[in-house]
Write a structure and sequence with these properties.
Strand content: 5-15%
CATH architecture: 3-Layer(aba) Sandwich
CATH topology: Rossmann fold
Order of helices and strands: HHHHEHEHHHEHHEHHEH
Number of strands: 5
Mean pLDDT: 81
Number of domains: 1
Low-confidence stretches: 2-9, 11-49, 51-60
CATH class: Alpha Beta
Distance between the termini: 51 Å
Length: 297
């Protein structure tokens, strides 16, 4: 089993090894330095080519020369703590997309969080590894999270509206930040992930953009009770303190607005503390509002 884990770790880290020079041995980078404009400008000195730049440099077949690039969909991201009820929020949209008789079924694409990929990378459950030993596996896990999230953000779509469960932003601003603050990531590991993140959200060819953020604001106590009730395999390893820390980071980012500013998009804050059955009805009424704002954009 140990051999298998080493193989997966090697697989995940191979693509980032060449860029680890951003954090030399003994160098300590504070969070403020990572996020200020001076440090961000250094990122561009690496001049890393985007994947799309490389592919664009290849000669295209004659029959593809005039291909029109699909327009980027209006993107809504649904953010919130573990147990905040994101799946419940997405249900009306998923029902819409599956109902061919619904006139809006061709408008919305729902993108769920890629938990299945995290649970099974060539047979290994990275999510379980991270919860069992965060100090050992956090960098590997979050590297793969960044990859899968940017794949979701940038994949082409024929539908004009995309509703995503979480985003690359919350992966960095809440989950990576929490692991670093909790001592489960070294300064160098944090710097590597931050450099990759800054590159991904600023690369013009990736066209990373979010149009609307929906924050399901949930008390940590409520989220913890929901997690205990649903009994997902890896989640029994989550301590209450982990949820409290994640809650505070979401609040700093989306409510108090004391970190990670300016915001990438307008924020709609929803009280997600009531029972999920009550919320389900409320979310159905909100669906029309969100779709209308996308159409009017």
């Amino acid at each position: 089993m140990a051999t298998k884990f080493r193989f997966v770790a090697q697989h995940v880290f191979d693509n980032s090894r060449n860029f680890s020079g951003v954090a030399q041995k003994g160098q300590v980078l504070s969070h403020s330095r990572l996020m200020d404009n001076t440090y961000k400008s250094k990122l561009h000195s690496f001049n890393l080519p985007c994947v799309r730049e490389i592919s664009d440099s290849l000669k295209k077949p004659d029959n593809m020369q005039n291909t029109v690039t699909p327009k980027r969909p209006f993107t809504v991201v649904v953010e919130g703590n573990i147990g905040s009820g994101k799946t419940t929020f997405l249900r009306p949209y998923m029902a819409t997309t599956m109902d061919s008789t619904n006139p809006t079924s061709d408008l919305v694409e729902v993108v769920e969080e890629p938990v299945g990929s995290w649970r099974n990378l060539q047979g290994t459950n990275l999510l379980k590894l991270m919860y069992e030993d965060p100090k050992r596996w956090s960098l590997m896990f979050q590297t793969y999270v960044q990859l899968t999230m940017i794949q979701h953000h940038t994949k082409s779509s024929i539908k004009p509206i995309r509703v995503m469960e979480r985003s690359l932003l919350s992966a960095r601003y809440c989950f990576v930040e929490n692991l670093y603050n909790g001592g489960n990531m070294t300064d160098a590991e944090y710097a590597v992930l931050s450099e990759w993140f800054n590159f991904l959200i600023t690369c013009p060819q990736l066209d990373f953009k979010i149009d609307q953020i929906v924050y399901l604001r949930t008390d940590p106590e409520v989220a913890y009770e929901r997690i205990k009730k649903r009994k997902r395999p890896e989640e029994h390893l989550i301590p209450f303190s982990y949820l409290k820390d994640l809650h505070e980071l979401h609040e700093d980012w989306l409510v108090r607005k004391t970190k990670f500013q300016p915001l990438a998009a307008p924020v709609t804050v929803i009280d997600a503390n009531p029972d999920l059955d009550v919320l389900s009805e409320r979310y159905k009424s909100l669906e029309h509002q969100i779709l209308q704002s996308a159409v009017n954009k």
